[in-house]
């Protein structure tokens, strides 16, 4: 524990965005402020996780036949989160954002920081997303709770990020085709062939790693890739991320536990609308932090 004279360490608040896929109850337990990514259906704007979740998002997409767009939170939304943290007694803030490669969120958090020139606010680009980002944020919150100073909090969180891998299997290319991210012809072919693309995070963005024919093979491959990434190191933490398929997530957990040495607790988290718009319903993936 670090002491400052006879007084207590300044309280350090942790802020992130909803692309971290952190379940609300875990964020609340650690006092982590979540700033929502915005989801836009035409003129209507909804706050990710607060006003729309993965299940309601895809029910609406399937009904209307078109995808919404997403945008980073406005700097004002981060400013409100900082204001709230200071109002609750924080003396310093560490804000950890989704990768700047996939979103303008980090930039918005920096603009908001500059509105508080006299306050101590550190903004970090985690270079990752989903529960890979979530575990980085969680590590920061735990370090802050243990009384670590800002530099140590950021170093510890960054180290966790370097030991974290994400692999996920898409259920369909339909939504990627709707977003224009793959050609319609390619998506049509893939549907005929029942291709399940496998994604990972590389250089701060989601990358298509390979294509597998069936769900069964895709899940097995995701588990195999996770095992290869861990090597002979046990997993310190694990999460299963999914898009609106909680039952499949539990089925996948059983296969994961049967194949790999897993921690007692595996977190199950919805991907969150800011990201699931791009992956589509039915995605299942795993995030593992190696010891």
Unreliable runs, pLDDT <50, ≥5 residues? 1-9
Mean pLDDT equals: 92
Q: Which secondary-structure class do the elements indicate?
A: alpha/beta
Question: Helicity level, as a percent range?
Answer: 40-55%
Shape: globular
What characterizes the major β-sheet?
6 strands, mixed
Task: Give the SSE layout.
Blueprint: E1 12-17, H1 24-29, E2 33-35, E3 38-41, E4 44-47, H2 54-64, E5 69-71, H3 75-87, E6 92-97, H4 105-113, E7 120-125, H5 130-145, H6 150-162, E8 164-169, H7 174-178, H8 184-193, E9 196-202, E10 205-212, H9 215-230, E11 235-242, H10 246-259, E12 267-270, H11 273-279, E13 284-290
Parallel strand pairs: 1-2, 1-6, 6-7, 11-12
Antiparallel strand pairs: 3-4, 3-5, 8-9, 8-13, 9-10, 11-13
Helix pairs in contact: 3-4, 5-6, 9-10
List keywords for this structure.
alpha/beta, four-stranded parallel beta sheet, 291 residues, 25% strand
Please tell me about this protein's structure.
Helices cover 41% and strands 25% of the residues. It has eleven helices and 13 strands. It has helices spanning 24-29, 54-64, 75-87, 105-113, 130-145, 150-162, 174-178, 184-193, 215-230, 246-259, 273-279; strands at residues 12-17, 33-35, 38-41, 44-47, 69-71, 92-97, 120-125, 164-169, 196-202, 205-212, 235-242, 267-270, 284-290. The chain has a six-stranded mixed sheet, with helices on both faces. It has a four-stranded parallel sheet with strand order 2-1-6-7, with helices on both faces. A three-stranded antiparallel sheet has the order 4-3-5, covered by helices on one side. A hairpin with a 2-residue loop joins strand 9 and strand 10 (205-212). Helix 3 packs across helix 4 (105-113). The model is unreliable at 1-9 (pLDDT under 50).
